[in-house]
Amino acid sequence: MEHPILTAIRRASFTPLGWLTPGPEDKLPDGVRFVILIGNAGPDMFRRFARERDLQRDTMDSWTRDVVGELAASLDAEAVYPFDMNPPWPFLTWARRGGAGHVSPLGLNIHPSYGLWHAYRAALLFPVAFDLPAQSPGPHPCEACSAKPCLTACPVSAFDGTRYDVPGCFAHIASDAGSECMTRGCLARHTCPVGQGFAYAPAQAQFHMRAFLKARQEV
Q1: CA distance 9 to 15
Q2: Same domain, 177 and 85
Q3: d(CA 156, CA 25)
Q4: Model pTM?
Q5: How confident is the model at residue 53 (pLDDT cuts 50, 70, 90)?
Q6: Strands (DSSP E) along 85-172, which ranges?
Q7: Contact of 213 with 170, CB cutoff 8 Å
């Protein structure tokens, strides 16, 4: 039977993506004894967001604060978010310590089940530790992938295994030539064989691409 905390997270349309006992290096508030990372994997979270907000006007970050804030309060937890920059929280470090995946050639975290099709939306900080089984990321799937199609699928070669050419990616997506990327989402991510069943549907892909363009335009 699943732990009630994890069930409550899923009922809120989020996915538990890893957990860990924090250490001094995490620089969390005094009294934090356990961290559970939550986010999206599959369509549930986006479907709830689309029901509750205007996709053309509202941001997912503001919705996340509202929904996760209520969830955290109901669980006697505190929430922190990856889009908080003061201070920036080390979500990817937490994920790898929590057994939630490896570093992919794209620089993104690759989850053993969800592949590249997941994202961290918040971390729940608890004053008590829970008896949850340790997670293992398993073997690194990219090490057994000799072809690495993710590094050659991008139309503008935004990935080379060491860096992500953000300006080049932005310029392509903003042009007529980038219409397929706008419709389907990142083509490099689509070529990865891991977690294909969790790939974003077009509505979700387009929402994130529009948000990416808007964020870059505001820089």
Answers
A1: 7
A2: no
A3: 38
A4: 0.93
A5: very high
A6: 102-103, 109-110, 118-126
A7: yes
